[in-house]
Structures are given as C-alpha cells and as structure tokens.
C-alpha cells in the first residue's frame, strides 16, 4: 500500500472521530487463520479485546504483525470473522475501518514529502475544529509527545526527521485523531536508546490520557508492564491472554527458564562433540 492511499484513508476517516462511550471499543476475533505461500501464519485465533491498553508479544515470526494488519484490513484472513462494537467488519476496506475509528501505525512511519507536520496533525484533528483551534490542537499533541511545537510544527515530513522524531509525530497524529482503536507495530523498532526512553514516557502518558483502546506489539518490558492485558503469541497461536502482571510473571518464570534450558542443552551437546573429537 502506498503513502498516497494511506493518506487518503486517514483523510476519509476524519468524520469518524467520536468520543468513547461506555461499552464501546470491543473488538472480537473469531477463529482467525491466515496462510501465505503454503505456510500457516495464524491458527484459529479467537480474542475479545475491550481494555484500554493491550500488548502483543512473542517470538519473531509468531504472527504478531500479521494479526494487526488483519484487524486494520491490510490483509484478509484466510478464514474467521472480525467484529467491532457488534458489527462484522471482516469484509470492510481499510478506509471503511478507518471511518469506524481504527488507526494503524507502522514499524517505519510513512514520510509525506511536501507535507508539513502541522498539515498532518490538523488533518488528523478533523473538520469540526476551526483553523485556529486546529493549529492549537496540533501544538498541544506535539507537546504531549515531547516535541516543542515551535521547533516542529512547520517541519516537513521528510528525511530530515529522525526515526524517533517520526514515531513521536505518528503517535501525535493518533492522539489528534482520538480514534476508538489505535494499532502500533513495534514502535520501539529501529530507534536509539535515548529515543526509546522518551518513547516509553510518551506511551505511559498516552495510557493515562487516552479514551480509546491501544493495541501495541512490543518486546520491551517497560511497555509490557503498563499493559492492562498481554497477548502471548507463538507459532501463530495464542498461548496466553490475561492480565498484564500475570502474563509477565509467567513469562519470567516459565518461558525464560525454558529458553535457558534449551541453550544449556545445546552448549552441553556442543561440548560433548568437542570432547569426542
């Protein structure tokens, strides 16, 4: 999908911004499977998501990004259904899902040459605000993600912005839209340690202030620690979906020791082979 199409999808979704109501934002996945090149990426995944902050974690290649892309409509499931607030959205386009309040943030944010930061944020803020209000709101959301509006509001979305800056701007866009559900695909990927520390603070603040649901793929413990619930995916299957603290406890006591045991056995086998030689 090219940048122009993504831009149109965000623009088409302007009028879909609505305040969260009690009982809204429930996402339901029923037996979602996905196959590509003869390989089964997702296997009968069934979930109900209605918490404010849900993290998805698991080994590389477990189907995490595929799952979010299916929710957004960037990929079509091989089988299964997707429901949002009681409506079957399985066959809806990306634009229609954006209209219903779903946003997607890629691992590598899209750069729009010739477009300024203020243009993107004012567009995301919707048509219901007047010119001055849109500008003020754009400055406000920039400040919320730790960027000085004076320094960034008129910058172009080009290669002069670092990866960390682009990710903050993308998060600011999500905050400006105020959508029902925002999907983040490993926002910490490809940024330096300083930017990561700042990004953690942004998500902690976003968690406190958001009125929608955030679903985020992450391997970082500090992000996982603020999640209401964690989905643990492995080999295309949900091995655990529970309260964040409980899953984190299981990850530390069950999964890590098992991985260490495998490593130890491998090292012992290599040592044994060396002795025989």
Main sheet makeup: 6 strands, mixed
> Major sheet: order of its strands?
6-7-8-3-9-10
- Low-confidence stretches at least 5 residues in length (pLDDT < 50)? 1-23, 257-277
Secondary-structure element sequence? HEEEHEEHEHHHHEHEHEEH
Helical residue percent band? 40-55%
Question: What average pLDDT do the residues reach?
Answer: 77
Strand content: 15-25%
User: Over all CA atoms, what is the radius of gyration?
Assistant: 20 Å
Distance between the termini: 54 Å
Please provide the count of β strands: 10
The computed structural class is alpha/beta
Number of helices: 10
**Shape assignment:** globular
Describe it for me?
The chain has 277 residues and is an alpha/beta fold. Helices cover 44% and strands 22% of the residues. It is built from ten helices and ten strands. The chain has helices at residues 3-12, 64-72, 94-99, 117-125, 131-144, 149-152, 163-177, 193-209, 221-224, 244-276; strands spanning 27-36, 39-49, 53-57, 79-84, 87-88, 102-105, 181-185, 213-217, 229-234, 237-243. A six-stranded mixed beta sheet has the order 6-7-8-3-9-10, sandwiched between helices. The protein has a four-stranded antiparallel beta sheet with strand order 2-1-4-5, with helices on one face. The termini are far apart.
